[in-house]
Each structure stands twice: as structure tokens, then as C-alpha cells.
Specification:
105 residues, mainly beta, four-stranded mixed sheet, 6% helix
Length: 105
């Protein structure tokens, strides 16, 4: 088994909403503002995305081997002036609502 860790930034946008964590098309949990969640996952190739309503992040593909610990950082893309573009993102660029980045340990 390997470990998948999701760290969610604490920010103004979406602070009252939970992000759904989706691995290989299956919802495995959710994460709230400022939380860190860990999930055991099987070795191999996986797809990861975070969702909030119909919006979310781009899907990231990753591979893990036995004993790996993989950390992803999530934050809302609606910061500063970008907050004014929320309606545009919700309607046309919904997969850029959440920024998801990877860091191996």
C-alpha cells in the first residue's frame, strides 16, 4: 500500500464548502478548509481530481509503488482579483476552480 495525502489551504473562497476527493472516478472522501487528510491507496497508476459542485480541479495522473507517500496541495483559484471571475470560471473553465499540485516525499 501507499499513502495519498491531501493538504487544503485555508482561504476565503470556498471556506465553508468541502471539496470531494475523487480517485479513479470514485469519491473516497472530502476535505474542508485548512484540513489535511490521508488515504491508503493501492500501488499502480491512478487519477486524482477534487470537485466542488460541478467545478473542480484538472485531473492529475500519478503512479505509486509500495511505501510511497504522495502529497497533493489544494487551494481555490479564486484569490484576489480572480474572485471577480467566479461566474466565468463556473460556466466556462470549471476545471480550473481548484489548483491541485503534487509533492513526493
Amino acid at each position: 500500500m501507499a499513502l495519498l495525502r491531501i493538504v487544503r489551504d485555508s482561504g476565503y473562497a470556498d471556506r465553508l464548502r468541502a471539496y470531494k476527493i475523487v480517485v479513479d472516478g470514485t469519491r473516497i472522501g472530502e476535505i474542508r478548509n485548512g484540513e489535511t487528510r490521508e488515504f491508503p491507496i493501492s500501488c499502480g497508476q491512478h487519477d486524482l481530481a477534487l470537485k466542488v459542485d460541478w467545478c473542480g480541479s484538472k485531473t492529475i495522473q500519478f503512479a505509486v509503488v509500495e511505501g510511497d507517500a504522495l502529497t497533493f496541495y489544494a487551494k481555490s483559484n479564486l484569490r484576489g482579483p480572480k474572485l471577480l471571475a467566479a461566474l466565468w470560471r463556473a460556466l466556462f473553465t470549471w476545471s480550473s476552480w481548484i489548483i491541485l499540485t503534487e509533492r513526493r516525499q
